[in-house]
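Q: Joint fold for the lines below.
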Amino acid sequence: MRLNQVFKFYESKDDEFVTVYFEGKELRVPSGISVASALLANGIYFFRASSVNGSKRSPYCMMGVCFECLLEIDGVPALQGCMIGVRNGMIIKRQIGNMNVKKLDIETY
Amino acid sequence: MIGEHIAIVGGGLLGAAIAYGAIRSGLEVTLFDEHDTAHRASRGNFGLAWIQGKGLNKPEYVNWTKNGLRLWPELQEELLQITGIDVALQQPGGFWLGFSDREVLERETKLKQINAQGVHVPYTIMDRSDLLQYLPELGPSVVGGSFCSLDGQANPLLLLKALHSALKIKGANIINGVRIERVTYDKNTRRFLCFNSAGDHWESDRLVLAAGLGNAKLAADVDIYAPIRPKRGQILITEKLKPFLNYPTNKCRQTNEGSIQIGSTSDDVGLDDSTKTDQIELLARRAVKTFPLLSDARLVRAWGALRPLTPDGYPIYQESVKYPGAFVVTSHSGVTLAAAHCYTVAPWISGLTQTPLEFIAFRGDRFIQRPKE
Amino acid sequence: MSYDVVIIGSGPAGMAAAIDCDKYGLSTIILDEQPMLGGQIYRNIEYVTSGRLKILGADYEHGITLADKLRKSQVEYRGNVSVWNVTRNGEVSFVINRGGRSGEKSQSINGRFVVIATGAMERPFPIKGWTLPGVMGAGAGQILLKSSGLIPNLPTVLIGEGPLLYLLAYQYMKAGYKPAALVSTTRFSDYFKAIYNMPKAMLSWRDFLKGLKLLSSIYIHGIKVYSGATCLELNGSDFLEEVSFKHKGSYKKISASLALLHQGVIPNTQITMSENLPHKWNENQICWEPITDEWGRLPESNLYVAGDGRGIVGAQASETQGKLAALSIANQLKNIDDFIVKSKQLKQTLSKQKRIRPFIDRIYRPKDEFRIPKGDDVIVCRCEEVTAGQIREYVDLGCIGPNQTKAFGRCGMGLCQGRFCSLTVTEIIAEKRNVTPTEVGHYRIRAPIKPVLLGDLANTDELTE
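A: Joint structure:
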């Protein structure tokens, strides 16, 4: 977890902001961007831990090809953060290891 | 005999297990393996080490499988010691699952009939409430099933890798990228010759044809009848999940890495091993019916492996009468029978043991239609 | 549901093909994995702010023209669609992604023809430390800029070679961010080697000048450039902390929190490979390409490929290929007036647009050491953490091709379905066996082309019987 953010917004945003939660921490992010972008813009690097050896990973391609940006979003595990847009109230957690099917409720998010 | 040189055509689960058995028995081994994109039925193996439901009308097969499963832990341990590779054998027992009372009744009848043949295979018929004790994620469509304590699973790819690794460590001569087109016997030198299409040849004292689909043609060269036809089996594999399925079932199991393996349909399609979308949807439907939570698991890969099947589905283990020392072996239970192939078939093809009695039932000529008198 | 033409992808090739198919009166639908049209190069083209547009430049802005034409046409556009199977006779199966798990059930539509316009992806850059958090592709940097308006805030090093890398450096500077360094793997000698491609390249003097302008502005703005870097390593414990490399004989270290890697793009061949269609190895571009006729049609099928997915040609040429495919398809479905004239024009245009290509390919040819890792501990398959050393061991064990290595060690079996490791694995095996990549071959790709929920495939509605 970095204290300094590695990415910043280059222009001030006049449009709406939404509130999302990452590992319990509240973040204010512009609407209309992907979850992965939102996290990177808030200094968050460590998205998931590999199931093979626990190594920490963060997004690489940002276009849906590399599957490194896996996160648990609103209780649903192993989703690609770069392919999903932020929503107000979204609850985001790291994806540690393999997906747990048992935890899911059968109804959709 | 010890010190003799044996050539084995086919480096899949069957060929590799027999090759390993031969080299540990003291023979010199040459193993031929085809190209990277060859059919390779072993890659389509489901990974079950299974006995329940097998062997109706073939009690010799029940006995053969039962002994094979008993020998398995020894093989796992041995491969682990020699190569450091754990092939993830688990033998906790396994389940067959049924979706209607009639199905379950038919199942019970079948298992009774099998046991009535003389070789006892333990089983328990369970209703839904019993099943839920072992498989808590079972869907409402499953009404009952049968459990057999002898059943289990292993990782077929790791097994293949371990066998090849062990062969290399023991000094086997593995020749990759070669497709044997023809085999002959030289009466003068009393040696067998294997030819590829370019005319290169290799000599040996003994010969084992374990070439899967390729066996039908090669077997004729050593005067053995082996009517093997390709049957396509489709398998689905999901992304890796945290463990939830502790027992293998006949259509669905969780591998040691966590992925769910779902299989398999089978159809006669000649040599077309592509996957068809309706088959994939059928398997997906059945998986979700069995374990509804799989609805949220992603399918990552689908195999359409071509598996070599004999007309009755049982193996062929036969030594040529005309060319003693030449053998044809084929079986589509490469994992279940791996230890049997290594510890029983290998010494036999090496000339170190007599033909096991039950092998009379596995001769290829059982398929020859006798002309009506 | 049935259409005359189903187009997969909405980059320049996809959009251009759709616009023209519509012009010829064919019923057309675009299926796009992304939520908005534009593909990668014109990402966010319909919603980008004017401020960002100034930074991204005129080439990007051209996408607006395409998007406008598309919107004015009868073409049906469907975003958030994940195609999971395409057959040779034009049946396309897909699911709709709703950003969660249980999506809608799988559907399939039929096109009398299908145009595969799925473009390209970043070439993998397997060096020590490339899996560390804080290391991304330069393409990812561009996507963050285009889609979210994000630029780096902490010391960043751009590494590698290729027009996209320099373009990104230029765009960052216009946005007010100066990278800590540009570590270029292009050597001076590469420029000389490309000389014999110069005459033809000079015919495309506009492209050439544009490239020069880009390069010179980078130097003018005082970005520290290291050319001919070798022995690249990315170091850090939990995330990137330092970039090290060898430059002019001595070792350099640069502290950085972000590294953006790039060594060109490669065709995305998942769909074309999944139907077992023949591909050839392009030694100039060091990648696999589907074998097509002059129109982009794949043999014994109703499938066409247009754009970078057919071989890297760039945005303009991709558009022209889209138009060529549309023309060819339209002429088969109805007689097109002056078909001959139109095709001649398009082919000439394409030829002109491809003229600069051999020159670019030669100068920016990715170096062996960054495609075929020497270090045994460099990760090749990111999904399953398989290293270069392990792959070489599998070759020792008898694996002569990538499908066997898949079987032996899970390499290529992860969620990315081999996209990120395929070329590296083929090249490592080729080098170890001392044969050509053609002889080694590539992964056998099968459906599903993208991971799909079992629930979507099971058509869960029908389960409640």
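Q: Anything notable?
A: The interface with chain B takes residues 85, 87, 91, 93, 101-102, 106, 108, 275-276, 396-404, 407-410, 413-415, 417, 440-441, 444, 446-448, 451-455, 457-460, 462-463 of chain C (CB under 8 Å). Chain C has three domains: 2-121+266-336, 124-263, 372-440.
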